[in-house]
Fold:
Amino acid sequence: MNRLPLEFYLQKTEIVAQKLLGKTLVFEGPDGLVSGYIVETEAYLGFDDQACHGARGMTQRNKSMFLEAGRVYVYQIYGMYYCLNLVTQIAGIPEAVLIRAVEPLNGIEVMKKNRHINKEKNLCSGPGKLCQAFGITKEQDGWFTTKGMLYVLIDGLQNFDMVTTTRIGITKDADLSLRYYIKGNQYISKK
DNA sequence: TGGCAGATTTTA
DNA sequence: AAAATCTGCCAA
Structure:
């Protein structure tokens, strides 16, 4: 069970977002271990990307984005949900990969309980959904993925095709193609 | 199956 | 006022 090493997250952020597809996201939470294969990601590219939270400088909310690669950036959105990002690049450069969807693997009963639903395809098919299913909140903001209880394993799905599209739910720099997902996968958020 | 309104709260 | 979202409701 090998974790992705620090060097993985220091690659170009678009490359990190692409290479995270298929890898296994794991959270050893209070209700036990939950995990799943990452099937959809988006890249957010620092000061020049107007959709990136860090583009206009550091704030209380986005400060974890400015930490070094391999950290976790969790923020609350629309007052109700949380979104999970993995920070890339050296400290001071606010780039990260948003984890948008996961194919459930372990802890499916915990996910169903957290989400109050039974349909497996609807458990983690969106950034807010997967945080709710995994039990990820602001408490995990700033955590290391290279150590600790929230991490990504090298192991996972292989031999799939990737699709690239524009990002979801943004208005600024909406024309950039920085969303990536596994072709044909049934657990992504949107076609 | 797809589009739309409403929930809800932090942030700038 | 807007936001890196989700759900339920409605129509076709």
